[in-house]
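Give me the fold.
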Amino acid sequence: MMMTRASMGAMDGAALDEVVRRLVEGGRGGRQVQLSEAEIRQLCVEAKRVLLSQPNLLRIPAPVKICGCVSFH
């Protein structure tokens, strides 16, 4: 069964901000954060919406220096 935003009970911006705040605070203390299935689904829907709205390629003027370390285990 395909769940639509309406059938999941769409989160308003304030509710979504509250879920993100709980996750950030829990992550700082290394604590688990309890989320309902509906909260997790809505986070996924909103994350997908944001990611799809962003370009997957960026134009960067040359020259470009890439620094970092890659480790394969």
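The mean pLDDT is 82.
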